[in-house]
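job 3f2a | input accepted
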Amino acid sequence: MMSETRVTSGPAPEGREFVAGLVDEVSNALQVILGYAQILHELDAEERAAAVDAIRHQSERLREVLTGLTSASRDASGQGPWQQRD
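job 3f2a | predicted structure (86 res):
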């Protein structure tokens, strides 16, 4: 009897955990940004200032996440997969 080998596609469990964490991080930040953006026009000046600060903070968080991903994806020469190789 021939044994079956199961082939799985996609990243290893560690990769799936990383992606799930990344998606969670980005989703949470976007939820805050979108939530405040939707009600910004309804807020008084003090609340609006707090909302703008929250939007700025979450945007900076997203930039840090993306900068980290960009850095992690670079090879030893400092080039990322999106850059042309000669």
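job 3f2a | The mean pLDDT is 83.
job 3f2a | closed
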